[in-house]
Write a structure and sequence with these properties.
430 residues; alpha+beta; D-Maltodextrin-Binding Protein, domain 2; 2 domains; 18% strand; elongated
């Protein structure tokens, strides 16, 4: 029998006001990565148990796997959800943030359907990383820490290749739309993405060559693997980076330099473990905070070009444009034109119903709800401590964290200075 209900350890009285005229159910966006699965449940339990509101967690994935970051603003705009607590606003290439925050609503006092309601007290960032606890990288972290290192033949020969990682069939989860996706081909059966201009030998070609004893690859070197958990993670940005690196440019006074990378999707945590056991450097896409994987000194971050040199707009539409060097990234002037990922000041946003006077208590709570980096780390680490998965047991993990941190979450409650006043206690005499 699974986890049924959270009994909070609390020192403060409940907020339960039947006169609230907000939507009967507060629909909170639940994401498809650990942080975005757990944080909504921390707030949801408090909204339900302390404020007496019905709570529903909204997942966008077809298989109920959660919502990717590019869809969250759009869900608020389209009235598919009421509240999002783990928004990554700097991903303007892939989100509809501007459109969501600009949408007009007549019933709203602010005349806007959606508004931001502050930030979390932690920052986040995606990026490319190489395993550091292997002999090829250990004590040479500086050599591996820039994108130029990927043009070094000694480094690329050491990196794990796409054919080293077992394929994962993603057709059921992500469909079989293969052609023209971000300027390349998404092979759902092989669980990979390949840029149209890449000159390396793909995983499937390598497999067929071994199977039939043919020389399909010729002089082409095998593709280096960029391992990504899920095709929806930074969809478009990873592909554009791979596409730019596939373009032959001048690097370190040498012409016609390119990097052959194939994006492969799979279990990053498991494949990192294997790579460390096999003493092979592995290139991965990941993010911080992610304490189950991204522990201190375990990875070297690949530093790319400044994010702000990138273009803007829809990556699907602009893939060909983004693949071209801008005037700030001419190959002869700057060497490499691969844009880095931005630092994210994680923000919160709510629909207009949660900002009306009738929802004052909930509004004040949402505004004050803010996890610090330390608190988030403790929350995420509970998965391993309790031997639970955030995908299946988010409510239980969140409940445990709340009961270990009563003082912290009670500080988020509104009007706490009124609890001991005669005005607040007047209801007890009626």
């Amino acid at each position: 029998m699974g986890f049924e209900n959270c009994t909070l350890k609390r020192n403060k009285p409940l907020f339960s006001d039947p006169r609230l005229s907000i939507n009967p159910t507060v629909r909170i966006v639940e994401g498809n990565w650990d942080e975005a699965r757990l944080v909504p449940h921390v707030a949801g339990i408090l909204l339900r148990e302390m404020f007496g509101l019905a709570v529903e967690y909204v997942r966008d994935g077809e298989n109920g796997t959660g919502t990717n970051s590019s869809r969250m603003y759009d869900m608020l705009k389209n009235d598919e959800a009421d509240l999002a607590l783990t928004l990554w606003p700097a991903k303007f290439l892939t989100t509809d943030r501007l459109a969501a925050l600009s949408e007009s609503c007549e019933k709203s006092l602010s005349e806007r359907c959606v508004a931001t309601v502050g930030n979390q007290d932690y920052k986040a960032r995606s990026g490319w990383f190489v395993t550091a606890n292997v002999s090829a990288v250990r004590d040479k972290e500086a050599e591996w820490s820039t994108v130029v290192s990927l043009y070094d033949q000694n480094h690329t020969e050491n990196l794990t290749k796409a054919y080293d990682i077992p394929p994962e069939n993603l057709c059921k989860s992500f469909g079989d739309d293969t052609d023209g996706k971000y300027g390349g081909t998404f092979d759902c059966e092989d669980g990979s993405w390949m840029h149209k201009d890449s000159a390396c030998c793909s995983r499937s070609e390598h497999k067929r060559a071994l199977q039939y004893g043919t020389d399909l690859c010729g002089d082409r070197k095998p593709c280096v693997a960029l391992l990504v958990d899920d095709p929806s993670y930074d969809a478009g940005l990873n592909e554009v980076l791979v596409g730019r690196l596939a373009q032959a440019i001048r690097v370190s006074n040498q012409d016609n330099q390119a990097v052959g990378i194939q994006i492969v999707y799979g279990n990053v945590i498991e494949e990192v473990r294997k790579a460390e056991e096999n003493n092979r450097p592995l290139l991965i896409y990941s993010w911080l905070p992610r304490p189950r994987l991204m522990t201190p000194d375990r990875f070297v971050r690949i530093t790319l070009e400044s994010f702000y040199h990138c273009g803007k707009g829809d990556p699907e539409r602009d893939a060909s444009f983004l693949a071209e060097a801008s005037f700030l990234a001419e190959p002869l002037l700057r060497g490499v034109a691969a844009c880095d990922f931005p630092v994210e000041q994680v923000e919160k946003a709510a629909v207009w119903r949660l900002q009306q006077p009738s929802a004052t208590n909930a509004k004040l709570f949402i505004g004050k709800f803010s996890l610090s980096s330390r608190q988030l780390k403790e929350l995420l680490e509970l998965e391993d401590e309790l031997s639970l998965s955030s995908e299946d047991s988010a409510e239980e993990i969140a409940c445990e964290w709340l009961n270990r941190n009563t003082d912290a979450w009670e500080a988020w409650l509104p009007s706490s200075h009124l609890y001991d006043t005669l005005l607040f206690q007047w209801a007890d005499f009626l």
